Amino acid sequence: MTQEEKSRQVGAERRSGSAAGKSGKSLAEITEADFHRIYRKLVAKVRHFGVTEEQVPDLVQETFLEAHRMLRGGRFKGHSSLDTWVISIGKHRCLKYHRARQTQKRKAVEVAVDTPVTEDWGGGLSLEATQARPDKELEGQQLLAKVVRAMRGLPSILRDPLLLRVRGHSYRQIGRLLGIKTGLVSSRIHQARTELHRELPDIRPPSNR
Amino acid sequence: MDKPEDSTTERLLDHAALAYVKALEETVTRHPELETLVAFQEGRLSDREVADIRRHLVVCSHCSDEILRLDAFDQAETSLEGSNSESADRGTAEAAAGWERFQQELGEKEAADDGSSRDLRSGSSTESPRPVWMLAASVLLAVAGSFAFFLAYQQHGETSSTIGDDPYLVNLFPDGEESTRTSDVPKIAIPKGMDSLLLRLLLGDQTQYRSYAASLGPLAGETHWQKVGLQRQPSGEFLFTIPRSELPAGDYVVRLTGEREGAAQEIAAYTFHILDDP
Question: What is the pTM of this model?
């Protein structure tokens, strides 16, 4: 194969988005055509990841710069298409960014730790109620202790879907996180609640005195 | 037959269950590494590892949220055909602007590269009216650290011969902070071809010191490398390079110290592990 034919083949692979993938050839840089094609895919994905809108162009830009640096360093081995490889770098970037944001938020929460906690059902789990209503606090703590005991007694296949549910996840999300079908999530949560009722037959809200 | 569910009791149970799971979450001090979480999300872990991660996800809202976000990333519609010509045009314009910015930032990197070489050879550049450090500083802000080492080099008066042509950038959190988010000390594999490690030490403490220094040593051993005269970046972090030759595989700690009223104080320690050559 002549040099010209080789160049043509690499060019064709790049245009198809399969880049060096199948042929094992390495690339030295991202062309404008590569950039345009991948940029639009990447922007859509970064937006779906859930970062702020103003952060999207920065994350996409950082992704391309990192991809460029890695290409220069010969880190693209051609095991996948160029598009897939760059998008994978973008995915890691998003996760790193999100973790950094979470760390910042956690520090902010630690600063605000003195904020009183309230519970809308008047249980004794709140710090505020603990100080103001010791009788309710006791009731609430006893209730919590009972529920904790009952929870611990549940098999994890029933307990885990329920815990994710009370956190606010949808059945579909719970199924995804636990690797089970949505229908099974629903029946296990129902079963978990039934078991809890059986274990805690006399459970009722703390009285409003 | 099941007992009919009373909605108040149901809510009460859910509140108690939520209090229980939140209490469990407070006991979580270790989280899967970023790579492990991505591997889980992509279905690349063994059954046993998957079971471990799932147990963690039940009690960790941060990591379960991250998995769902990664799913959303993967499932995003990436068709290039927009729903209408207006959105297609906007996408094209954004991509064009992105390409321009990409080219500009690459150009600035190369200019900074050339500028530093010229300075070493002839003392100054005649092409740019701005000092090289200003150019490098703008790159630092724009590229979020990828090229920050140029600034660090110029500020510290190092020459390119003592620095690798392509340092490997690593962010480190002080011990006791990031360790609550990740399962182990950071493990660093310096890629082949990288002659030095560019460390970015992140620091939340805003106390100002007269001067800063960093010392490197094995986790259980004496300091064998030191960097004095460090300058804190406007964003609060410290940047400096360590030659690869100083970092054979093993556990290390970098101690950041500050001088105040004539006395040196340790500000933070950063533990990390260097892996064998990949």
Answer: 0.56
